[in-house]
Design brief:
By secondary structure, this protein is α/β, with parallel strands linked by helices. It has a single domain, classed as 3-Layer(aba) Sandwich (Rossmann fold). The chain is built from 6 helices and 7 strands; from the N terminus they run H-E-H-E-E-E-E-H-E-H-E-H-H. A 3-stranded parallel β-sheet has the order 1-2-7. A two-stranded parallel ribbon has the order 3-6. The radius of gyration is 18 Å and the shape is globular. The relative contact order is 0.14. The C terminus is likely disordered.
Length: about 180
Amino acid sequence: MDVNFWGSVYPTQFALPHLKKSKGKILVIASVSGWMYGTKISFYGASKAALLNFYDTLRVEFSSSVKITIASPGFTRTAMLRGKQLNMEGSVEINKSKTDAVLHSLPLRSASECAKAIVKGVCRGDRDVTDPSWYGIFYVLKFFIPEIMEMFLHRINIIPRNNMKKNVDVENISATSGIKMS
C-alpha cells in the first residue's frame, strides 16, 4: 500500500491545486490486477483496486477541471516479472520461481509497447487505457458473468499449477505472515 497507493495519492494531493488552476491531467498507473483476480498477488491487486477507486472518485469530485487517465497494464516484461524484487530488509533479491508460478500461462507484452499505448491513450484523452486491449474481455466477464470469469481463471492458474511436474515454490495468501485461513 505504501508504494502502490500512497505513492500516487500523496503527490496527487500536493499537485491538485496547481492541476485545478491549469486544467491539468493526471496519469495513474494501476494494473489489470486491480479489477481482475490475480492469483498469488492478492495484496498487489488490492493496492491497485484502491488506486482505481480513489481516482474514479476524484473524477466525480473534479468533473472536467482535472482530466484523469487510468492505465491498467496487463502483465508486462519488466525486471519485477523476471523475479527481481525488494525483500523486507530492502535488499534486491531474485526469486524466479515465485513469478514463474504466477506467470506460467500468460502472454507478456514488452514494456515499450505498453508505454506507447498508454501515451497514445493520454494524448487522445481516454479515461481508461488497458494494454493489451484484449484484457478488456475479462472486465466484461467480471461485470456480467463473474462466475465464468472465476472458473476460467481457476482453470488457467490453479489447475495447471497443481499438475506441474517441476518444483515451483508457491505460497498462497494463507502462508503470508499474519494471515490465518480456516
